[in-house]
Write a structure and sequence with these properties.
2 strands; 93 residues; mainly alpha; 4 helices; two-stranded antiparallel sheet
Length: 93
Amino acid sequence: MDDEEIEEDRLEFELRDLDNQSRIARDIDLLEQYYIKPVEVDSYSISLCGLYSLVILMMEGYVRYGYERFELLIYMMDLLGPMKGYLPMENLE
């Protein structure tokens, strides 16, 4: 087991007992350090400067393949690698 797998297992173990609201709050706290800024209560702005690579991949999915909304999300998940709990593109048809 390499360091990345060990870290993934540790994180999964830490998150196991958290409810969805606690998980989302934890994710927002982490994202505030790098990409998002609170604007007002329950509202955030996203700095695209640090996300250009993701934006370009999303634009490719939209322009080249015509993906929108859910299809675009699934396309991004397929590009970024296996994730638990979603349907791959071939299962949408």
